[in-house]
Amino acid sequence: MRLLLALLTLLVLISCAHGRYISVPLLPVHTVQVDDVRLGYRMVGSGEPLLMVMGYAGTMDAWDSVFVARLAKTRRVILFDNRNMGHSSTSDAPVTIERMAWDALGLLDALGIKRADVLGWSMGSIIAQEMALARPDKVGKLVLYGTVFEPGPVLAALDR
Question: Could you tell me the end-to-end alpha-carbon distance of the chain, in angstroms, rounded to an integer?
Answer without folding.
Answer: 47
